[in-house]
Amino acid sequence: MSSAPHASPFDDWLAQDPEILGLIEREAERQSTTLQLIASENFTSQAVMAATGSVLTNKYAEGYPGRRYYGGNEVIDQVEDLARQRLMALFGAEHANVQPPSGSNANLAAYQALIKPGDTVLAMRLDHGGHLTHGSPASITSKIWRFVSYGVSPATGDPDAPGETIDFDQVADLARSERPALIVAGSTAYARTIDPVPFRQIADEVGARFLFDAAHPAGLIAGGAHPSPVGVADVVTFTTHKTLRGPRGGAILSSAEFAKAVDSAIFPGLQGGPMENAIAAKAVAFAEAARPEFSSYAAQVVANAKALATAVAAEGIRLVSGGTDNHQVLCDLQAFDADLTGKEAQEVLDAAGITCNRNTIPDDPRSPFVTSGLRLGTAAMTTTGMGETQMAVVGALIGRSLRQRNDEAALAAVRAEVAELCAAFPPYPSSAGA
Ligand code: DSN
Apex CA 4: angle with CA 388 and CA 241, to 5°? Predict the structure, then answer.
């Protein structure tokens, strides 16, 4: 067994490839000695990692349980069925497909299942928080379907009604004028609860279908901290690795009406053999998310985001939409320092051992590569056991780093404090010293 601080039980098997083993150990070190504030990341359980690294990776299983195009799938069928059953039970859904390797593939399949090429889709603007697959010109989605975009309302400057929340008047107006075949709710950078009900009402009024992309809040929904779109939307897509804390991957839930269309859209529509090792790991994560302690986790993720938001606001950083209801804190850096871009802030924080990503803010004057904002997330650090007290410290460290960004010694001092904080909250404590 390796002596790395967070060695996996498989390290001996990897000893034959010291280059890759060394890189994995370096990454384990990075993950455990710096703060992970990327909103789309988390620390999976060791059980999830064990299933991901299992012999199930060896098996070809094109098709679905009971309807495979290869022999030898008796056990694999049980794995995939268990994953489907656990997922349906977790969300109370009529149908589940656990094969998508990512949220993007899940969305592509959902579009294929629900609408025809050339149809109009109403989805959230990328620069207001939407995802690439919600019709970005750079995404294949915009080449197959015609996208029309809604956004958030303008910032008001009023702390009691700050704005920058989904503009449902705009959603309704665009739905009436553009008559989309599909309305998409969901985002990648939006710190507020997304209520599926008004979207459903607008979709029904114009005869559109309704897809809810729950990539980010899936774990908050499973844990009861956010309203569930299951049974409201026709199809719900999500990733399994963000707030849901599973392996990297995607999944699709639907009503029985769309079950066949969803399954055909994934296979043979988009892919051949699914990654059954990842599906087993998803099954492990779905069982973990069904435990009562996962509800406490989801509630703590939100409480931590609120504490982090309060702390960064105290440093003079403006919060997009004035706060947060989920695991994300969207920061507008312009008032803090007009010269500080999101790109530079991300790099400075990296140097200080605080990992996050730059992000556009609504109507950002800078390009998506540079940006004027930062997106912070609390899902991963909550998994390590950090609470509101630690979030207050993290917010202060962020402010200090950004203010002293040209002072290498000051950043090194922050990095040392970060390492000390992380040492008290190891992501994999049981393997420490293994
Ligand atoms: N890029 C992911 C995120 O960070 O939100 C979404 O695909």
Answer: 50
By C-alpha distance, which of 270, 273, 281 is closest to 61? 273
Instruction: Say yes or no: do domains 55-289 and 296-431 share a fold.
Output: no
- For residue 6, what pLDDT is reported? 52
Domain layout of the chain by residue ranges: 55-289, 296-431
Name every protein residue with a CB atom under 6 angstroms from any ligand 1 atom. Answer: 40, 103, 131, 188, 215
CA-CA distance, 232 to 227, in Å (whole number)?
Answer: 10
The β-bridge partners of 332 are: 318, 373
What letter does residue 256 receive in the DSSP assignment? G
Please enumerate in sequence order all residues whose Cβ is within 8 A of that of 87, keeping only pairs 6 or more positions apart, or say none: 93, 96, 98, 251, 253, 282, 286
Question: Coil, strand, or helix at residue 398?
Answer: helix
Give me the mean pLDDT over the 39-47 stretch.
97
Residues with catalytic annotation?
60, 62, 213, 239, 242, 248
Read off the pLDDT of residues 249-262 as tens digits, 9 standing for 90 and up.
999 999 999 999 99
Ligand 1 atom nearest to 102, measured from its CA: 7
pLDDT bin (cut points 50, 70, 90) of residue 317 is very high
Confidence of residue 9 (pLDDT cuts 50, 70, 90): low
CA of residue 324 to ligand 1 center, whole Å: 18
Domain spanning 296-431, CATH architecture = Alpha-Beta Complex (3.90)
In angstroms, what is the span from residue 67 Cα to ligand 1's centroid? 33
Per-residue pLDDT at 430 exceeds 90: no
The model's pLDDT over 272-305, given as tens digits with 9 standing for 90+, comes to: 999 999 999 999 999 999 999 999 999 999 999 9
Which numeric CATH code is attached to 55-289? 3.40.640.10
> What pLDDT is recorded for position 429?
86
User: What is the SS3 assignment for 352?
Assistant: coil
63 beta partners:
68
